[in-house]
Amino acid sequence: MGNFFTRGLKPLAELPLDPCYAGLSDAYHTPVTPTPLPQPRLVHFNERLAVELGIDTGDQALIDILSGNRPWPAYAPVASVYAGHQFGAWVSQLGDGRALTIAEIRKPDGERVELQLKGAGKTPYSRGSDGRAVLRSSIREYLCSEAMHALGIPTTRSLSLVASPHPVQRETLETAAVVCRVAPSFVRFGQFEFFYHRGQHAQLAPLADHVIAQNFPHLVDRPDRYARWLEEVIERTACLIAQWQTVGFCHGVMNTDNFSILGLTLDYGPFGFMDAFRQHHVCNHSDYEGRYGYDSQPLIGQWNSSRLLQTMLPLLSDNQEEAADIVTDIYERYSSTYSQEALRRWADKLGLREVREGDASLISRLLTILHQSKSDFTRSFRHLSRVRTDSDAPATGVREEIADLQAFDAWVTDYRARLRSEQNTDDAARAARMNQVNPKYVLRNHLAQAAIESAMNDDDTEVAALMRLLNRPYDEQPDMERYAAAPPDELRHLEIGCSS
Ligand code: AMP
Ligand code: MG
């Protein structure tokens, strides 16, 4: 501490507070104090994020505040009310059942962020549940948020992970944990749905105005700000899902209450990065109908967008027809944004400098081949950079897993021809570019599971190792090679469900 990089850092109690969200009326949230946890143990603290937030990591009060055992000075924590479409069905009242906003601070760079504790006890929205989160799911959320951030995918962040021996009953008896997560806003689609469907339309504008003022300040003075804002929200949502698709990420519970108004990946539950690629892979074992399978995610994002847009009709015009027209225009932006963004990202993964006619079919042919072969998604794309334009050597690392070699070899021939058609073709430069968009390391389920099992035995070294590894997902890390491997057979089908 005390070196150039840590100068100016402050203990939590001295960070500049800016309670804009808590300042909204009590229609949106309820004050709740966290319930203390016995014997808190700091499993991991994200020093890098702490420094970004201006936090002095030597502060002795950190663990007490981040476990919910001591209040954040001068801030009254709140839990938000919301509703949502869960697996397609309307649920009129939900809310932060185990999350609490414990502070809103200004970072040294001027950005305002909110800090939430997840798992810090019951709230008025707990609906008969215990308000707790188990260590297992907390480790998954903690690691995945930071892994996504390092991949360049918009997400809530994680600052700290505290464990406790406090027992929590799920399918088996487990123990409690609290994650402190950080985002510029935790407002969800479901918050607007709550007020719209109760007919409390007067509550929509103050919440929208808050989000716009805090997170879309360039729109504040525009007379058409609601329409422009929604356009951006819908575009961000489409772009987010294009990123999920192209990295092989399945969210698992794409309910509207888990959709961020900022287009962040939010509420990590039974998510999964695909090992073996299956177009209709369903990562959530509680999703019996496969509603949120990999290939459904783009359409679900669109459907959720339509749910959000419906709630905004009263804000857009007093004339119902006019409001409907505005919403329809915005809605249509989803599919055009998604297609464009996804195509560009797939093309980047193939090392193509620009998208040309025929590229969409080149990509879908490859995906079909990988799907039929159940090839490892991450490794296959990473190894594609080995295809050379100056030789016909086979694409090692990909070809070994392919079922239909004839189709694959024909595809590689076409791919090579496509690469050669670009100017300044340089295999080494292209491989370097591809390795910046095709990660070597992702949070595979079996890796998270190993960290969970160690931490359950009070050994937190694997959590720390994964945090370090996944901070640099695109870099070769030679002594970490085993973390890039596909799971061993016995760990291929770990069952991850909604229980958390
Ligand atoms: P999720 O599926 O995790 O997004 O949760 C759906 C809703 O149930 C949210 O409103 C959560 O806050 C709430 N919830 C989930 N687990 C618990 C729990 N253990 N205690 C209280 N509320 C919970
Ligand atoms: Mg949720």
TrEMBL record:
<comment type="similarity">
    <text>Belongs to the SELO family.</text>
</comment>
<dbReference type="GO" id="GO:0000287">
    <property type="term" value="F:magnesium ion binding"/>
</dbReference>
<feature type="binding site">
    <location>
        <position position="258"/>
    </location>
    <ligand>
        <name>Mg(2+)</name>
    </ligand>
</feature>
<keyword id="KW-0479">Metal-binding</keyword>
<dbReference type="InterPro" id="IPR003846">
    <property type="entry name" value="SelO"/>
</dbReference>
<feature type="binding site">
    <location>
        <position position="267"/>
    </location>
    <ligand>
        <name>Mg(2+)</name>
    </ligand>
</feature>
<feature type="binding site">
    <location>
        <position position="188"/>
    </location>
    <ligand>
        <name>ATP</name>
    </ligand>
</feature>
<keyword id="KW-0464">Manganese</keyword>
<feature type="binding site">
    <location>
        <position position="98"/>
    </location>
    <ligand>
        <name>ATP</name>
    </ligand>
</feature>
<dbReference type="GO" id="GO:0005524">
    <property type="term" value="F:ATP binding"/>
</dbReference>
<feature type="binding site">
    <location>
        <position position="130"/>
    </location>
    <ligand>
        <name>ATP</name>
    </ligand>
</feature>
<keyword id="KW-0547">Nucleotide-binding</keyword>
<keyword id="KW-0548">Nucleotidyltransferase</keyword>
<comment type="function">
    <text>Nucleotidyltransferase involved in the post-translational modification of proteins. It can catalyze the addition of adenosine monophosphate (AMP) or uridine monophosphate (UMP) to a protein, resulting in modifications known as AMPylation and UMPylation.</text>
</comment>
<feature type="binding site">
    <location>
        <position position="97"/>
    </location>
    <ligand>
        <name>ATP</name>
    </ligand>
</feature>
<dbReference type="Pfam" id="PF02696">
    <property type="entry name" value="SelO"/>
</dbReference>
<keyword id="KW-0067">ATP-binding</keyword>
<feature type="binding site">
    <location>
        <position position="95"/>
    </location>
    <ligand>
        <name>ATP</name>
    </ligand>
</feature>
<feature type="active site" description="Proton acceptor">
    <location>
        <position position="257"/>
    </location>
</feature>
<keyword id="KW-0460">Magnesium</keyword>
<feature type="binding site">
    <location>
        <position position="118"/>
    </location>
    <ligand>
        <name>ATP</name>
    </ligand>
</feature>
<feature type="binding site">
    <location>
        <position position="181"/>
    </location>
    <ligand>
        <name>ATP</name>
    </ligand>
</feature>
<feature type="binding site">
    <location>
        <position position="131"/>
    </location>
    <ligand>
        <name>ATP</name>
    </ligand>
</feature>
<dbReference type="GO" id="GO:0030145">
    <property type="term" value="F:manganese ion binding"/>
</dbReference>
<dbReference type="GO" id="GO:0070733">
    <property type="term" value="F:AMPylase activity"/>
</dbReference>
<feature type="binding site">
    <location>
        <position position="267"/>
    </location>
    <ligand>
        <name>ATP</name>
    </ligand>
</feature>
<protein>
    <recommendedName>
        <fullName>Protein nucleotidyltransferase YdiU</fullName>
        <ecNumber>2.7.7.-</ecNumber>
        <ecNumber>2.7.7.108</ecNumber>
    </recommendedName>
</protein>
<keyword id="KW-0808">Transferase</keyword>
